């Protein structure tokens, strides 16, 4: 119990950092909307991207350790449940097949699911930083600065939009950009595995 609370604290601490990054991207859009200077925008985006990369690099080590711990835990629990190592270890073969034999797996499984959900929440927040970087480009594109004769074709702004697009900024873990789609796949896989284990446990 204490472990999961500590784990949750660690994750919420990391989420706090990711939320700050999220706010920085918002702040960039806000400032650009105010000054409308593409050259300054390029410089600020450069700085923002460097900050994002640096923060992601600091966070990725601990994230990878925690994610692989949860993945290994799921692998161990599913091996215990699906391959039936409990049955082999049990002293009485006939009784071992009863449903109660697998009950001891419930507690570690619940702890793993709790950790997994916290990690998914963290990756979701990290993915929203990446998505926000993509949206910033659209936002800047949609801002039009009225020139002398109404709408002016602003090539500086087009350059900034192109620059943001080419920089592909976002939250990277080991060179992989975290997006909502990737988190969804992870969540789907986790749900399917948990469901399979629980179905197997209640059937056994
Ligand atoms: C998660 O990562 C932190 C920092 O590396 C580590 O102290 C902690 O033990 C890890 N937790 C799990 C469950 O792996």
From TrEMBL:
Domain of life: Eukaryota
Residue ranges of the TM segments: 178-199
Keyword Membrane: yes
Signal peptide boundaries: 1-20
UniProt keyword terms in alphabetical order: Membrane, Signal, Transmembrane, Transmembrane helix
Full protein name: Uncharacterized protein
Source organism of the structure: Polarella glacialis (Dinoflagellate)
């Amino acid at each position: 119990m204490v472990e999961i609370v500590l784990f949750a604290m660690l994750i919420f601490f990391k989420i706090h950092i990711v939320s700050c990054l999220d706010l920085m991207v918002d702040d960039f859009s806000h400032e650009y909307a105010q000054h409308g200077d593409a050259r300054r925008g390029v410089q600020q985006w450069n700085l923002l991207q460097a900050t994002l990369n640096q923060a992601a690099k600091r966070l990725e080590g601990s994230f990878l350790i925690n994610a692989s711990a949860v993945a290994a835990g799921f692998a161990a629990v599913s091996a215990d449940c699906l391959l039936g190592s409990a049955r082999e270890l049990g002293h009485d073969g006939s009784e071992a097949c009863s449903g109660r034999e697998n009950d001891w797996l419930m507690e570690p499984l619940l702890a793993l699911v709790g950790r997994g959900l916290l990690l998914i929440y963290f990756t979701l927040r990290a993915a929203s930083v990446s998505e926000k970087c993509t949206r910033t480009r659209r936002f800047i594109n949609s801002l039009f600065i009225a020139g002398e004769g109404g709408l002016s074709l602003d090539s500086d702004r087009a350059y900034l939009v192109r620059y943001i697009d080419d920089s592909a900024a976002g939250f990277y873990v080991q060179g992989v950009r975290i997006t909502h789609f990737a988190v969804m796949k992870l969540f789907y896989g986790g749900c399917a595995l948990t469901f399979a284990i629980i179905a197997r446990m209640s059937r056994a």
